[in-house]
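Entry for the shared binder. Reason: the reviewer on the internal report wants the predicted structure included alongside the sequence.
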Amino acid sequence: MSENIILTGFMGSGKDTIGRLLASRLNMGFISTDQMIELAEQKSIKKIFEEKGEVYFRKKEKWVIEKIKGLKNVVIATGGGMVIDMKNRKELQKMGNVIQLSANIETLKKRIITNGERPLIRNVFDIDRLYRKRKGIYDFAKIKIDNSEKKPEMVVNKIIEELNFEKPQSFKEKAEIRIKTKLKNYPVIIGYDIMEHLPIFNNKVVIITNPLVGTLYMNELINYLKKGNNEIDYFIIPDGEEFKNFDTVEKIYDFLFRTNFQRQNFIISLGGGVITDIAGFVASTFKRGCRVIHIPTTLLCQVDAAIGGKTGINTDYGKNMLGTFYQPELVLCDLKKLLTLSDKEFLNGIAEVIKYSIIHSKRLFYILQKKKEQVKNRNLQLLFEIVKACVSIKGVIINQDETEEKGIREILNFGHTIGHIIETITNYNIYSHGEAISMGMVEEMKLFGRKINEMREVKELLKEYCLPIYVPCDLKNKMKKLISHDKKMKGKYITIAVFEGIGKIKIKEVLCRKFF
């Protein structure tokens, strides 16, 4: 069981207020399940009930649980009716420490009537009826706390005392790495809780994110931007690689035109690789280029996707077949955001970290080998060193070959030729990017690599981080057709990064027919 805290209770019991305070005290992420549904639907809870009904809303609550159940180090404030469903209650119990917040009926009535936005409440008699109907459904909680007469700060203190939680120490170290290209010289800042480095004042900002990331981090970002007297708006993209397409891009263009977005204004990408790629593509093409800042929230995005200016969207012919090279103004790699990732998403990023160690750094490879338990447990000092090492490696390569014209930057594609094809033929819904790249690295080593013993070490390291190393046979039969559409094709030849040992890769042109 992870150290998540789940707050349940009848409407008006203070779950959101107390949840935000609790998350702040414990340096944890915060999720309101109702807010996540509102972001996904782009409607208030009241409107959803009016237009689509309660049955639809309860299905969305199940959708939320599915999306958040792997997260770590988060405080989750659940909607009052989420636990009506027994399966929801069981899932919440698996996710962490369940706390029931309660209050006497008179206190609840005052809070609910003052709010005035509850879709199931038209008058005070509805409160009595619903309160009786839901009696007992919150009793599965590990701890029950009555907050009728208590201030929110007192309730937070009580929860921390009951759970015996201590506020984790923050991480003070910071690094700034300059990415230098022909057109732009910009910083990548790495640290913990580093929003103060966002240099936007008296401007217009559009945040591009998805419902989960928006729920976790957008309030914090908006509150900070408001201090700089900025005008803020946001655009929500559904979560998933399948939405990284031109249809999504057109919707964002339309939104930017309707809100009178100008070239001197800022787009901020808040999310993982999909969000970063789309936001970068839009920024590079809208009115021939506007300003963009990346705030990557996944390990994969912090070490790779947000760095170097590659943007892209997918087509039926493959991943990132449409794209540009367009550098951001700034990248903020906040290590705090890595602590809430699910294990699956964290290991997805480790695949790219392993790639960096293979192509450029024996030292990083051996850190991943020798300190794998600390890495898996997300030791902040190690995360800092890992992100810094990967950004530094990519920075050196980008500085030499921003747009892949010299054949230097193609070293970063190790494992990606086959990995991207695996993603394409499985419609991006079977393997994560990291899993596909893991299989791609092993297959490319087998086809063109040297140093059998070191190849074996690579395979063992991937396995130790629970990453797949074999491509299923049925996929191999389908993969050959898509090789010819690869961006690196030149006639019958394809440019590929060939493994020559840990920390050593060589770029070669090989005959396409040598694949499979």
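Summary line for the report: The first strand starts at residue 4 and ends at 8.
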